[in-house]
User: Fold these one by one.
Assistant:
Number 1:
Amino acid sequence: MGAEPSREVTGIFYHPSFSRRSYLTTGRRLADFPAALDPLLRRPEVRLFQCVPATDELILLAHDPRLIPQVEADPL
Amino acid sequence: MGGVVEAMGRVAAGQLRNAFCFIGAGGHHAGRNFFGGYCCFNDVVIALRQARRAGRLRRVAILDTDAHHGDGTRDLVQDDPEVLHVCVCDSEYASADGTKLDLAAPDPWSAGESPDRAYLTLVRSAFPVQAERFRPDLIVWYFGFDTHRGDYGDRGLTTGAFLGLADLLLETAGAACGGKLLVVLGGGSRTDLATTLIPPIIARLAGVPAP
């Protein structure tokens, strides 16, 4: 990831999979990204981060353990 | 969801000025033991609990301007007095302690001022004063663009309303919590709207000209 970002930087958190199938109602609403951000990403005030997957441990900070298999089994 | 967790941690720690989070699935309709509305897990609440666990913040103010009520988020923070949750939706509600508020969005088809102006007036009348009084460590804007004219949660809004909301949130975060603002993408279906709306909002966050 390189050097720590400056507190003067705006972070953009994104993953390429979001542009292939983002938000389950709509498919490819983010199809134009990240290309649509190119002019911004050339600026030093902006930095792109690639999202990492969440762990079950994180999910359990808010959710009942039984929710995880229910989400996994959802056909959407 | 992992991106929202990392983004909130970095903004809370002062490693980033602010942040914009794209998402793969929604979050605000996911409660402790239910999910729906194309939301799986509640990214915002998970992120705030992780940030608390890391000692990076305690108090968070959330403004939800997605078209539909953030019922999952409300379920998870209902008994948490250190979360201000203001949701612009279809109903009016105020909890006894004043930290959970629902604001009925204006009817865009009623006579009177423009939908953009009416919506911004409503939010401006309620959120900044509540947030500044609450003194959060960080503000989250749950940003759905489904309220845009022609999208599935149509409130008659146009681009100006969303840019106005971005300016209002930046101003409020500047006054309430040193500018610590996290924008999390919510609903909205149209590719053309995402492409038109998101880059200028990020430009505002960064304080640079819109592309």
Number 2:
Amino acid sequence: MIEYDEQQRRMVLKLVYYGPALSGKTSNLLQLHEQLAKEGRGDLMVLDTTNDRTIFFDLLPFFLTTPSGLKIKVKVYTVPGQVRHDATRKAVLQRADGVAFIADSQRTETANNANSFASLEDNLAMVGLNIDALPLVIQFNKRDLADIVPEEDIRKTWEVAGFPVVMASALQGWGVVETFTKLVELLYDRIESRYRLSDEHGLAKADFVRHLTLVTAD
Amino acid sequence: MQDDALSYVVGEEKGLCELLLDSEVQPLLEGMLAAGATSAAITDQDGDELWVARDPARLGKEIVSLPIRLEGEPVGALRIGGPDETAQTLTCIARLLGVAIDTLLRNNLKRILTTEIHTAVVNTSFDELVEINRQLTESETRYRQLAESLEQKVKERSAELKKALVHLLQQEKMAAVGQLAAGIAHEINNPLGFVTSNLHTLQKYVSRLITMVEYQKTLFGVRMDDEARMQHADHKWQELKINSIMTDVGDLLHESLNGAERVTRIVADLKGFSHVDEIGAVPVDINAELERTLSVLTHELGTHTTIDREFQPLPPFPCKPAILGQVFLNIIMNAVQAKPSDLELTLSTAWDGERIRISIADNGPGIPHDVRAKIFEPFFTTRQVGSGTGMGLAVVYDSVLKLGGMVAVTDSAAGGADFIITIPLERD
């Protein structure tokens, strides 16, 4: 949690899209920005890239007020994927409340996926976050490409750890909102017990999730 | 992180006042007045004015209030006041202004965020580098200390090893001397053995001859006729077997004298080999030294040893003869140990006017190419533990070097080893 100010009645939560370079983290946020209703959220902020590579981070902010008057802000970040930007990734991961791990489904990227996940584990430990308690969703992106790892193999490898796995193609626009929804659900569960969102603030899980994942009517 | 470094969390909320500068906002609000508004203000969510521009001379009421959003969340409002007549125009201009402020907010936010994260990353990287540098410096100091103490340790070790080496050489010499002594003792015991045995026999013979001579003397003193005397003498002669004694005695004496002579020679050879009387360098006949070494090693040479000598006349070589003797002894003993029976040794010497060349070749198994460089190294041995300290050829190498020459090993004609010693010798 970035911030919880009882006096100001404000709670700021952070979700981070993590993964190897070019796996589609920024593309995911671009799709969310396209597909989700404009109410209750800001525009996607893409920070200074050179030739489409993320150097700093991307930010998609959401905003809602509970019936009790508590202002909840959910900030969704991506991190740069290139190995050299590890310091930036650590800075962005600080105080995160949930992570979506975006993996590249291509066979050739198997090692990169593994290395990136390992770096996620290391960096979470380094910024004092417990990977076992943190809401985590795994997305295997780029299902539209040719030489990809079959779904059963992916689920066999990655579901054993107990994380939900979602298939997606950010390019074609599917699986993106599904991933985000899953993450938001896990986020609510995590926060609810401590902050009594339902009892004290009148915010039920369904409301929370619906507000953040409302899709624009075409 | 150092105390004075900027430290922040990615995602910290920023207020309007952090994101807009007076110098950016005021001109915009003033511009609104110039366009005909009576008041232009930016307020926060509670309605408090953060920036305002007012025309004190004119009156107007609030025409429009546009929400200002930051990251999607309303954080304030742009309130424009003016006369009714121009309300529509002012509203349009106000919307323009709203877009301008929104653009300002976005850009400033972007700039601040990039600066902040850039600073955070630089600080972290710098801190990491400082730490790495500290660790490397520590490491380097440790290594330097280690290197220094290592040098000292090496010096100490070398001194220890030198002492041990000297001790070992001494022991090896003693062992060699002991072995030699044992061989020579055997050589001497052999002739002494039969000389003693012969003397015992001669003792018996002499006693019988004395008995005969005394009997004859007694016979001379008694009165009897010649024939009777002859008979008595003859009888005694037969009884004491004087005939066989007389045949035997010559051989026994001859054999014993030979034996004694042999012992004398062995002792002389040994004395000569040990050069006990000589201390400094003397002109040495190398061929003679080789012969001496061979004779001293007679006992060691084993069964069926053949020695071929191809000695050419050599000029006398000034050196300590004991050293040469040791060199030849070690090389020949090497050959003997390589081929204990049916050994064929070929010793040849030559002088070409510049160098003396000595070759000791055997018909043993030879020396494999991969160890040829190592055999002259101290402690190198291909023998079992306890049967050789590996110093023999090292001593040879060292000694030949001291004599100003070189020793090398190559294949002999018979497939064994051929040790070749070359010593330069300037002849006036």
Number 3:
Amino acid sequence: MELSKVIKFGEKYGDVTLILSNEKNNKLEFTNGKISNASHGESSVLEIRISKGKKFGYALTRNLKDWKSTVLNAVKLMRVSRDLDFNVPLAEKTKANRIKNIFYKRAKEISPTKLLSYGENLMSEVDSSFNIPKAEVSNNYGEIKFMNSNGVFLKSKETSFSSSIEVSNGKLNSYEFHTSHDIHNTKNIGKKASELLKMKLHPKKISSFKGDVLFDHLAVSDLFESVIIPAVSADNVQLKKSNLANKLNKKVFSDALTIIDDGVLPNGLFSSPFDGEGSPTSKTTIVRDGFLREFLYDIYSAKKDGVKSTGNSVGIDKLPNIGPSNFVIKRGTFSRDEMYSEIKRGVYVREIFGSHLINTITGDCSVGAENVFYIKNGKVIHPINQAMVSFNLFDALKKVRVIGKDYRQESHVAALPMIFKNVQVIS
Amino acid sequence: MEYKALIKKFESKGASFIDLRILDQTSEVVSTENGNVNSMQDLSSRQFGVRIFYKGAWGFAYTNDVSKLEDSFSKAFKLAKISSAKKDVFKINNVPINKASVKQKGKSMLSVPIEDKINLFLNIQKKFNLDFIKNKNVGASFSRREQQYFNSFGSNVFESREYFNVLISITGLKNGKVKRSFERIGEVGGHGQFRKLKFDGIAKALEDKLKTEFIAGIPPAGKFPLVIDNVLTHVFFHEAVGHACEADSIIEKSSVLAGKLGEKIAPDFLNLYDTPKIKNEHGYYAYDDEGVKSKRTILIKNGILTNYLHSLETANKLNMKPTGNGRAESAFQVQIPRMSNTVLEKGDFKFDELFEGIKKGIYAKDSLGGVVEPTTGNFLFNSRSAFLIENGKVTKPLQGVSFGGNILNILPKIDKIGDDKKVSYGGWRCGKNGQMVPVGGAAPHIKISEAMVGGAK
């Protein structure tokens, strides 16, 4: 489709910003170890923003033939919208970043039979006494074209490859998954799920106590997404909905903590040459050695604070509209065994659930813990049935000292395991 | 090529079942905050989804480009062929054939000018007058879903439905504490149904709830008798029992209710069913996404587990009757067994009688969601608010509580069911396998003789 035609038509009514996304997806699903569904899909989405002065309207269509009426819908919404504090921003022409390792031709062009073999590999190392209720492999190719009335024209493309598997012994389940830009070794994913289930067998009950908790990657990632990311987004800071408002350049966390939002990280799951409103992405130091240094901005919120966008817009549908790219925690020095040996009495928590119950402003967390193991004198003693953990995340991060050194990124957070002290463990 | 001709073409290549969905969706989203519009969106889409069954295996393809439809048929067929060599053999032969066209009557909310909606929402905000309210949000989405369904057995079903979903939320700040109260309303219907909403009453109730939030005490932790309200009861049965009745989880052996058909799992006086046919409730539909006519399916009768919920695939695999629960979020996803509206039948107890004889207990209200481990049936639920029960009376307000346990252990502990069954109209959406579908339900209050209550949320 010819985007310049849409721009020209829209410019009768105001400035135009367009995003056209095309996606191709292949997916194989398995039930009880056998293939249960095979799918292929192609889809396109056109997003249109029309703006004039302090007003804008936004419309989206998946029916590209319908672009004219989509423009008119955006115009209709612009006309009834209220005035913003500033003029609606329009990205300026700049040089786009080049990001390494987010597109792999081999991950784009996987034949159905090849994908099937990745699926079989996924299940191949699972202990034969276990059932595999569900497994899935998929690959995805996406391209984005961005254009606006300032003459900005940007393109990007990326691939992703995902696998996930659930393993069960009829009583207990375990789940493992991974997403990467390139094809990954699915055998390992299945193996990990199987090993996790073996570790979980014969859980015991413990009584509630206060102690050290080693939160693994996935738990840390959930906690940061729920509390820290919203707290450093400029829109929340400006509305005083952030616990970190007015704390710029102050010590907010322990020395051990440095966090960088890195939109250009090679291989980063959320790396891209430009952000949701066409600004170049960048590296933003959020916290250095415990000191709060910068917030995440889009153009609109940056204007309010008299600074520059950090390239963290997540789309043209709202203003402001801010989100993280790759939220990278700086590597610690502790190996897994060294981390265990730091714990006299505590638990290892692989995942948390119920993160929607976290108070995202105050950082009060009282959540369910999944895949929990009891640790005594540096040794993993036994799995625990069910537990809840309760603590304040801001307080925990003020004291955190023990941080792991091996990354795992499945969401925006490039996470590391950490030990929080004095956590209430309810079982 | 015409749709039916495409189906014929691939049938002649050996496909034993084919279905095609053409889905058109249009929606309008408006949200307002503190006297201003903060976002508006207009969304539209056309989707084609093709599913082909060949020698015991499925292939599925989707597109939103009609010119690629024939290609999608070829792709789906190719995928089914690749899968067929590797799979369990079963047949799709029990397929109810329906020909119907169901259109929602009356004026559409999408034809109401957007200015009128904005004004309405800004006016609702003006109904909030408590001086400690710092933030007011009123927003809604209005959408139309029109689907044409064809299959190779001859079904040809068209259905259009409209949904409205309203969210009203207020946040208060008092003595350094921030509390929020919100109301979610979601129904199937157009303008005629929307204008029945009584925003004065809703606003008043929200202010009352917010006031209570500020004086709510810390709930105790431990084992207590528990009374839960209509909303929490319906959500509890949806999460803890309904999902375990979805036949795909039975086939995957990931349901705690697998192999329990015909067994007594709950007290004699407990009856539970799934029905899409509650007019205007969020899980309403006339036909499911496989062209099967919707009907009531009894899940628990007099305490005995009687049925599972099926898509065409699971019904045929397990050699049971389709129940009209094959649903998909969009034509870009395959149909899987899903609940519609989950209904717990009312019991004999008056509201006050539920609390009789409780020395110290908890009355939990309204849901903040829950988590259930399907294989074991372990669950954890969170209420939005709660009250203390002392000597048979509801006394102090408490913060929301979480309560947990195991479904097979807790069902027999339900000792009273209220006579106050109420439809939720809460605009619930349920996620499974990456697909969100609108669901609903109805339930009375219930009393559980003893449950593990986890203290503050």
Number 4:
Amino acid sequence: MNAPAAPGPGALAALAARLFCVDPAGTGVHLRALPGPARDAWLAATRAMLGEGTPVRRVPVTIPDGRLLGGLDLAATLAAGRPVAERGVLADADGGVVVLAMAERLPTGTAARIAAVMDAGHVMVERDGLALSAPARVGVVALDEGVEPDERPPAVLADRLAFLLDLATVRASEVLGGCAPSDIAQARARLPGVTASDDMVGGLCAAAVALGVDSMRAPLAALRVARAAAALAGRDTVTAEDAGIAAQLVFAPRATRLPAPPEAESEPPQDSPPEDTPPQPQDASAPDSDDPEDLKKSLDEDQELLIDAVKAVLPEDVLAQLAAGLSRRQPSRSRGRAGELCAGSLRGRPAGVRRGDPKAGARLDLLETLRAAAPWQRLRPRAPGSQARIAVRREDFRVSRMRQHSATTTIFVVDASGSSALHRLAEAKGAVELMLAECYVRRDSVAMVAFRGRKAEVLLPPTRSLVRAKRSLAGLAGGGGTPLADAMDAARLLADAVRRKGDSAVVVFLTDGRANVTKAGEGDRAQAEADALASARVLRAEGVNALLVDTSPRPQAAARTMAEAMGARYLPLPHADSRTLTGAVRAASLAG
Amino acid sequence: MSGLFPFTAIVGQEEMKLALQIAVVDPSVGGVLVFGDRGTGKSTTIRALAGLLPRMKAVVGCPYGCDPAGMAGICERCHGGAKPKSELVPVPVVDLPLGATEDRVVGALDLERALAQGVKAFEPGLLARAHRGFLYIDEVNLLEDHLVDVLLDVAASGENVVEREGLSVRHPARFVLIGSGNPEEGELRPQLLDRFGLSVEVRTPGDIPTRVEVVKRRDAFERDPEGFRTRWAKEDDRLRKRITAARTRLPQVEVPDAMLERAAQLCLKLGTDGLRGELTLMRAARAFASLEGDRCVTDAHLRRVAPSALRHRLRRNPLDDAGSGTRVDRALQEVFG
């Protein structure tokens, strides 16, 4: 058996489209691409292969639960005088495909609902006085238009989608075509009878572990894909080739490491922060007492083949990155963008409705109010002579709930000690001024903490005033020790105050991370470092969104350790001027 | 739905399975919270519980499934009157879907009857259906706040009071709350956290044979659910019998004073708030002893259930990097030596 030849990303995308059509509900596609001809071509090809009768529904990102899952049909309820249920998009698409537009902006709650329907294969609705259950075996295509690495669909959904396709480098002509709907139909008919040997299953599981693919859903998805591939090829058993295709499509985009070459004894150090570290690599040659020898041997062989197949389709840069032991950058946890969401406010975007009187500024949601009143119309006596067509009572009132993005305060914590050369200070000042000019437009504010000598001081409380900032910045002198712990504590207090006001805070440290003054203000390097690490952990525990810019001319481990301890992004910028610094800070605070 | 996965066919995840069994043997332990990695079979296992529960006696036609034997805490309909007829019904395991609205959870006016007959009748909601059984909330940390408030209130009082749409109804709603979620999606409010008696952390299995087995069984189930269930029916039966026996044995299981002292020491060491921790620890240890067929709670039982009973009650210490599970283990080492 030979590992399959390396198809390009275009061929892979076309292949994924075919396999998705064979088993839509069992697989699912996460399609990462900006809108353009390639994506349109892929969708068109998929639609063509699915054939005429298959429903394909597009789900907008702001879909309310009532439309997604089903609920009360207002018009029909009014006409009939009794509650009439309306089916949601998911139930409508039973046996077909739903296309989620702009999935990277999908709220986690909506994603979780879709995921629950994918798991169960039916919609269960308990809302608006209705209890419905409708079959909904749907295939999901999530269109991800994210540009930044952190802009991704919620993990609860992405984890359940077998294929992850990136069409960034794919031309439209590469994904056109495909096969005839009749071929797909034939493969579908064959699919239930396709079997996979235990060796194949074992090989897929072992390959997943070796490649650092953690989720148990990945090998399951790979198995389904392999089966679909066999069915499409007209076979009744899964061959190594099918498994290779599955590994290429399912594991390659998810791989977080490459297995160490046999001769290398030690695994290169993992670069990710501790809690993201995948379980220790299961070295295939490690002795495992309860594992039968022969099984292990065949596992080894299958696994090798599959890993080779995966390697063949990984882009050069990713391959190099993985081989160097650097794990691929994991998207960070928080999905906050300009500011954390605060619900229940009176301004901002609508976020559903609740019962209540339209008072204290709350806005009446007319449609939902009518919807609530609709079923009661026959029961409610009208006053004689009343011209009112609809009797609406107080208990029908529904008001909109809003939520808005809170303002962001960027807190700069600037190392003004002797170890940070003076010119770095000038750059930091420049960056703060540039940020401030921007913040004025974005209605954000800036604060500044400087630390040198024995302690840190808040040089600039949160402000939007450019003049005031410039004045206090001008007075900042450099030199002296590095009381890093004190600076972190000051930043934490400031961030806390900002959050209490309902805004969100981003803390930006500009330092080389080499603390040499303790909390008590004494010059003891070891104790100072311990203090700083302790303070950093408190910052992390409080969930402060932080960025650490390493300003030393030659980035060293000290700052990196500090950044890890406080859960901050680490950014070495040895030769930055104030403009690049601003750019980096902006990117970091936008990505949250 | 493609039917339930057999409980005994779940590979590994012993702590989660044990916690669920304990909750079945002694519902007074309080709910079970399962937090952990994606795709570890949390929902599958909890839903599988429904297939494992022995049937219970309930009053015929009672919308709340009242216990004909228990006179305390039954609904108004079953209160008074002649001795009610009873029947064997399955123990409810009610799924609270995300996006459920409040009226369906607590119950509301029966629209159909109101419109057709002009009768003001109460249509029981999910809480009524879950009475004497289990209420399962998947992605519990994504539940909307106002629903969480309702659940907390009812779980604490064991009674659902409905005051809406001109109705005034109260009915018993004692259920075991089971929640699952992924901590990365968001933290759980401490009040809700405290309501759960046991808390379990699940991880993705790391060794290949286990993973292979998981994939194989899941695959076999998906391809032929009926056949798969038949193959595991015997094993499920055995466990069901064990649970039934444990339930009857439970009142006779003794808790020696020495064990109570140990539990108190452990809670003291960990600085858990209130007495709920000790109480849960004791009850869980007793239920576990009963499951094991023992008549007396010992150190071994305490040790086994302590992590689940205590890990979510620790006060957060920002300077301690270790997970709460590790901290419980450390305290166990110190107390038990």
